[in-house]
Amino acid sequence: MAAAAGQRWGTAAPLFALALGLLAAAAQVCGDQSQGAVFLREFTLIRRESLHDDFLSDLLNNHRTEDPSSRTARSEEDRDSLWDAWGSWSECSRTCGGGASYSLRRCLSSKTCEGRNIRYRTCSNVDCPPEAGDFRAQQCSAHNDVKYQGQFYEWLPVSNDPDNPCSLKCQARGAALVVELAPKVLDGTRCYTESLDMCISGLCQIAYVGAADSSVQFIFYQPIIHRWRETDFFPCSASCGGGYQLTSAECFDLRSNRVVADQYCHYYPENIKPKPKLQECNLDPCPASDGYKQIMPYDLYHPLPRWESTPWTACSSSCGGGIQSRSVSCVEEDIQGHISPVEEWKCMYTPKMPLVQPCNIFDCPKWLAQEWSPCTVTCGQGLRYRVVLCIDHRGMHTGGCSSKTKPHIKEECIVPTPCYKPKEKLPVEAKLPWYKQAQELEEGAVVSEEPSFIPEAWSSCSVTCGVGSQVRLVKCQVLLSFSQSVADLPIDECEGPKPVSQRACYSGPCNGEAAEYTPEETDQLYGRLQEFDELYDWEYEGFTECSESCGGGVQEAVVTCLNKQTRETADETQCVISRRPPQLLKACSLDPCPPRWEIGKWNTCSLTCGVGLQTRDVFCSHLLSRESNETVILADELCHKPKPSLVQACNRFDCPPSWYTTEWQECSQTCGGGVQKRDILCKQRLADGSLLELPETFCSMPKLVSQQTCKNEDCPNEWLLSDWSQCSVSCGEGTQSRNAICRKMLKTGGSIIINSSLCPPLPFSSLIRPCALATCARHNRPAHKQSPHIVAVKKVYIQTRKQKKLHFIVGGYAYLLPKTSVILRCPTRRFRKSMIFWEKDNKRLISTAHITIAPYGYMKIHRLKPSDTGIYTCIAGPAREHFVIKLIGSNKNLIAGQPAGIREEETMRKASLNEALRTQEKHINGILFNGSKTEKRGHPADPSGWYDNIVSRLLQHKSWPGGNLEFWEAQESTERNVSSEEDQSQEYSLPYTMVTEQKRLDDIIRNLSQQPEELKDVYTEQLVVQLAHEIFKSHLERQESVLKASRRRVDSASMEYPFHRHVSGFTSSLRTSSAEAFLPTSMNPTNGLHSPHQKPAILRKISAAQQLSASEVVTHLGQTVVLASGTLSVLLHCEAVGNPKPTISWAKNGEEVKYNDRMLLQPDDSLQILAPVEADVGFYACNASNALGSDSVSIAVTLAGKPLIKASRTTVINTELPAVTADIGSTVKTIQRTNVTISCQVAGVPEAEVTWFKNKVKLSPAHHLRDGLLLIANVSLSDQGLYSCKAANLRGEVTESSQLLVLEPPRPLPYLENLTAVLSSIGTSLPSVLTSPSGTKMTISPGSSALIGCAVDGHPTPNITWLYSGKPLTLRHRFLAAGQILQILNISDAPEGEFSCLAQNEAGSLLQKTSLAIQDYQWSVDKLMSCSASCGHKGIQVPQLRCLLDGTEVNISNCKKKPKPTLQPIACNRRDCPSRWMVTSWSPCTRSCGGGIQMRRVTCQRLTAKGNSVPMSNEACAQASKRPVDTQSCNRQPCVEWVASSWGQCNGPCIGPRLAVQHRQIFCQTKDGTSVSSDQCSALPRPLSTQNCWTDICGVHWRVSLWTVCTATCGNYGFQSRRVDCVHIRTNKPVLEHYCSWRPRPVNWQRCNITPCENMECRDTTRYCEKVKQLKLCQLTQFKSRCCGTCGKA
Predict the structure, then answer these.
(1) Which residues are CB-contacts of 194 (< 8 A; sequence separation ≥ 6)?
(2) Is-contact 120 89, C-beta < 8 A?
(3) Which residue from 80, 417, 475, 729 could staple onto 734, CB 3.0 to 4.6 Å apart?
(4) Helix, strand counts (H, E) of the chain
(5) Residue 719, Cα to own-chain centre: how many angstroms?
(6) Distance (Å, rounded) from C-alpha 947 to C-alpha 1024?
């Protein structure tokens, strides 16, 4: 054990070394006494840091060797046998009556010594005092408080056992039980009662006592092999902050060298168990970081001693205050878990538990009477009632109150108002119907421990009408107290009169008619019924449960009809309804409700299977008052109960297998379409939420798509570049070019060709680059072979008259007459002409009878026919050129041949990319060249179809030569004289065809594509006429040059007339106005016929502004005019058509142009601006109007090309249309869900770029439409704001804005929040109603106020106007909540009209209405109450007064202000009453307890119809009912009193000097001494059960010794101690410390000399340094530091 302790404590090894050193030093000091031993007295282990001076002083000053003279001299045989001398004698085992003492010696040899090591002698051989008792009896009585086989016994000694006289045998008092309680008695116990022999170590030893010197013979016994051994200090009880540590003692077996059970050491009386030592430890404060104080166990194996208590005894009283006690002891648990009591000081480290405590200190239940009800009569004598409840200490309705002390629930009352009636001898209650007999029947019998009669409930009446009988069972029963069960006994076991088991009953008249009886039958019946009537009565039976647990509720007194004999509840019809006591109410649970959780409903589950989640709302609320229903929401911390969960799992079951998709992957293209993919997997969601992947066959639903087209944006505009062309030279340095098309890839995947200005600028080097070929040869021979080239002519030919044969060169279009032969020539360069071949519609041609393929690039078609229509291709190596032939029919229509369009498409599709790009670019550039952005349109992909359309219109025109073919044919011979038919160089001037450039037709196509659809036909006519004019003009010029050369050979007169006649006719038709020449809707001046009426249309002409001179600009509509510094004049043309002829007017920026000397309106309706200035900049609109409509086209005039925006300053309001369009600058007000388009028409040179903003934040291009339009689709309130359009170019920028306001017409709301707020603020329950479109209605009382709410909503907030019958209000009123609520004040008469509210805003109006009806409260007296009496002279019926509203009965308080109608009582039941018994009240009881007598007077009387009471003979009443008793016992409860026992001993806990507490028993008993329940004495004052008392035992105080010398002179570890004892004041002897516990215990340990040591000075800090130096302890660190001066000199 010591070794183990040494391992546990770091300082153990040095301490053992110190001990060994001390022993060695002591040996040296003794010198030649080397055989002796140094005995060190016990000392206390000290702190690890240092050794106390106490230790050194005790060790060095007090140790001494044993005086040789004190030891017995050794005998020779002892010296020879190597035994040491005998030691001193031990204390006697007894103080009287003969005990034993022992002496020890030790063996000095390493061998075994012969003899004994212990000897005994008797001692204390004086008689014990008589009160000490027998020594063996004392040992038996020590076992009285130890249970034996579960029971306590009082043990008596069994002496003179012949078999084993030294064992402790005892016998239980009063029983034959003899038990050996110990194997041996204590040393010194007599073996036998009459002998001096004594038991030593369990053996009977004979003692020989000498007579002279009382010497005792020495007897040697077996050596002692078990010794007590003191342990080291156990670990400290606390790791910091101050604890204590103990030593203990263990029983050690010297032979086996091991620790054994304690009882082995108890066998030897000389083995005195050392007392444990206690010291404080670990006094340093706990670290502030954790404040953790570890409580250590008693040691590693034992827990700390602890206080243990027995259970509290039963309370001495069930209520009203009692006491209960228990015993508390300090116990210790050993290794085996056995618990044994130990000294109390071991547990003093914790407070001792209290031994006594009060209990049941609450008040006993007691009767609590409520307030009395009003008297039942308004004059004279009546009754009043009250509710009486048994209330416990918590105020709850309970049982346990004595029925004997219950206050009465009714009493008589007298109203001082006289009734002016003859004085009645009997109490008022004795008269029907209110007045019943003034007697209270005894309570129903209850089963008790004495046999008694117990009646059961009455059976139902034996008849359904008339007089019958009722029976009941009466038993003799007794209560068995020990089993609390009821047993039936024979009838004769019960004493006293047996209750009746049969009685009469009346069930009403039979056959619904009043029964007629003889006077005798009447008396008999009425008498029996009187008994029946008195049997049932109304009583209060407590209160109902409170209607609310908090926040204010009500309780209603429960009124029941009781059978007065059985005290059982009966049907209410058994009691007289007119006698029912009044209703009693009282408030309850008035405290505000504590905060509680308000829980909403669970939301739907997030998943239908697998495992989903449901949520709900949970908030902490506080109900202040139920009356006002005022609830407030609180913080969650204020609700003390755990917050209910907000989430729960739901639908926890497996889902069917289904398809699960991954996220879509990135699109294959970032823009312009593309595809994206995803994975489709078959999975099943299990009930635990996990996903299980399954084969695809498990999923029954169709598989989802795994690929889709992307919905990304259109790609940015991009250039599509062709391949580079061949080098421009065949040798040397030249250039290569390529074409570029601006293309837009759409998000659908397709592409469109767009304006090249929409693509980013393309460097010139991207389209042209230099190329270098081989150096050119000197002999003009190309060094390298160049590719072939076909010299094509791009013209359009239209045959005007018949001709046998025509010559053409490939590259053009020819519209020819049938049966004309055609010769096509294909001129080539750098190609052998013999290698040329021809194709028609992509099929190679070979010579036939109809078509001849000639060498050197010629081809001839004989006499054209419809099948010859098509595309003829000349192919020279890689080069190819086309020629298109189409035929003209006899009706000037084109003849349809094979589907040339299809063939042409195929040809174009198969053409090379360069050819396609070249063709596309040619048309697109023509279309997009010059023209404002707002007028741009698309163009047809196939020019051939457009060519056909234009040529067809030319052929159909009335001025086109075709009808005059005979004239042209007559000139044929003349022309042949001046022109050779086969001259190939003159094909351009053939008179048989009209020729124009393809470029001219492309211009017409481009202009037509820009026109609106409704004007295309009109404009086509104009362009066709212009084209015809140009064709004939050029042809005439050629003809005139031909005629000039031929005049020398031909008679000019014969030629000039017919030719000029025709030409002049044609040209004159060209010079007519446009409205007359080409419009089908105009009036034809030739025939004078009127065409149909037509609304105006302005002709759009797409051409650049013509700069006639440096200072004059002429332009048409749709253009942009740029004013320069030198501009002196601007002429704006405007041409319009329509029937009637439209009127032309001009406007600038939306305002009419005011003409002046600078602004001139020309005769042709053109507008001329002279000397333009900056103020003239703007948009000029030409407006054409007639009776059928109008048209308008604008033109922009800018300054130096700066941006310009066409703005408007109007306000557009839309409340109906689904779409609205407005110019920028205007204010737009529209309803929701419409489409709003804002137009921002801009102009500028270069073209201005448009940017849109909303509230100064730039909008994405997705919102824009083409041509500067902004579309706001499906407008909502969130779209409101300021929209700005910014136009910017290199010249500058300009911004215009429009405000968009969203309108919402007034609409009705289902509620009005303001109305609730107004009602709560007013605090009165005013009637209120909301208006509605269909009308509402409310009924109110006259003179009251009413609130009418107009619940509407709209944007902007509607203005509300109140009307009455369609007119402004005239009644007294006021407006609340900004006019939303109308309060009508003091309505007196019924309004004849409706109240209505008219809500209006810019979006519309709404009319809602309501009507008020006034209904008054009225008194009604149409019913009679029941008769007040069944007989006698007082029966009256009073009309029942009711308050009605609209025929419905309401609370009578509503009619209080109405005058009550006079009520005339009606007499009823005025007849003689049958004879009946009359009784007086019971007299007071003759005794207050123990049984007394009450008496009353009983007479037979009859009440006549006149009100007189006539005495009758007893026989008259006896026939009807049994005579009531006139004497009864009372106050039968036993007389009881409190009885107190004598005071107990004054041995309670000490509470002061010589002051303790003593107790006594208090119980309730009857006068004859029988104990009864304390409840029966509860009404009497209870005597005290405890009091203070004086006792010498408590005459104690704390005694303290002087402080020891401080263990250090400086430093932090010095301390000093003192002894603290609880001692008796008189004897000054120590007693148990708990006697002094009423005073605080003085401290026994304190710090001292806490001053810093000076480290620089080497000096001694203890006075024992010389001893340290003598013992050579300076080498130890502890001593060296404490004795620095002394050890330094050494």
Answers:
(1) none
(2) no
(3) 729
(4) 21, 112
(5) 58
(6) 11
What's the chain's average pLDDT? 76
Using CA atoms, how far apart are residues 351 and 846, in angstroms rounded to an integer? 134
CA atoms 1621, 1627, 1631, 1633: torsion sign:
negative
Task: Enter the pTM of the model.
Answer: 0.31
Q: What is the C-alpha separation between 1234 and 230, in angstroms, rounded?
A: 105
* Predicted local distance difference test score (pLDDT) of residue 1391: 59
The DSSP secondary-structure symbol of 1514 reads H
Spatial contact of 709 and 749, defined as CB atoms under 8 Å apart: yes
CB atoms within 10 A of CB 209: 12
End-to-end CA distance of the chain: 38
Q: Which helix (H) or strand (E) holds 477?
A: strand 474-480
- The DSSP output letter for 1593 is G
Distance CA 736, CA 724 (A): 6
d(Cα 1284, Cα 752) in Å, to the nearest integer?
A: 30
Cα 534 to Cα 440: distance, rounded to the nearest angstrom: 10
In order, the DSSP letters of 1646-1676 are EE-------TTS--B-STTHHHHHHTT-TTS
User: Any bridge partners for residue 1336, and if so which?
Assistant: 1410
Reading the block at residue 527, the tokens are: 């008498």
Calpha distance 737→766 (Å, rounded): 9
Q: Beta strand pairing status for 1645-1647 and 1615-1617?
A: antiparallel
H helical segments located in 157-244: none
The tokens for 916 are 């396609």
Q: What is the pLDDT of residues 610-657, one digit of tens each?
A: 888 899 999 898 877 777 777 888 888 889 889 999 888 898 888 999
Contacts of 82 (CB under 8 A, 6+ apart): 107, 108, 109, 111, 113
β-pairing verdict for 740-745 and 99-104: unpaired
Residue 839 has φ and ψ, to the nearest 5°, of -130, 150
Spatial CB neighbours of 58, under 8 Å, sequence gap ≥ 6: 40, 41, 43
Distant-in-sequence, close-in-space partners of 1042: CB < 8 Å, separation ≥ 6: 975, 978, 979, 989
- Say if residue 1444's pLDDT is above 90: no
Give the span between the Cα atoms of 865 and 848, in whole angstroms.
15
Closest CA to 993 of 1006, 1005, 975: 975
Supply angle C-alpha 1237, 1241, 1244, rounded to 5.
155
Burial class (CB in 10 A: 0-12, 13-18, 19+), 610: buried
SS3 assignment, position 934: helix
Query: Do residues 1142 and 1148 touch, judged by C-beta distance below 8 A?
Result: no
Q: For the ranges 208-222, 1166-1180, 1627-1641, which has the lowest average pLDDT?
A: 208-222
CB 121 within 8 A of CB 213: no
- Determine the length of the chain: 1690
Over residues 1586-1611, the mean pLDDT reads 86
Supply the pLDDT for residue 292: 41
Those residues with Cβ within 8 angstroms of residue 1122's Cβ, 6 or more apart along the chain or in another chain? 1105, 1198, 1199, 1200, 1201, 1245
Kindly give the residue spans of alpha helices, DSSP state H, lying in 118-201.
135-141
Round to whole Å and give the CA distance between 826 and 876.
9
Buried b (16+ CB within 10 A) or exposed e, 534-572: bbbbbbbeebeebeeebbbbebebebebbbbbbeeebee
Contact status, residue 30 vs residue 36, Cβ threshold 8 Å: yes
Average pLDDT in the 158-162 region? 87
Distance of CA 1480 to the CA centre of its chain: 74
Which tokens go with 1122? 């740029």
Radius of gyration for the alpha carbons in the chain, expressed in angstroms and rounded: 68
Euclidean distance between CA atoms 1470 and 1507, whole angstroms: 9
**Distance between CA atoms of residues 582 and 560, nearest Å:** 12
DSSP string, 68-130: GGGSPPPPHHHHHTTBPPP-PPPPPS-SSS-EEEEEE--B-SSSPPSS-SEEEEEE--SPPPG
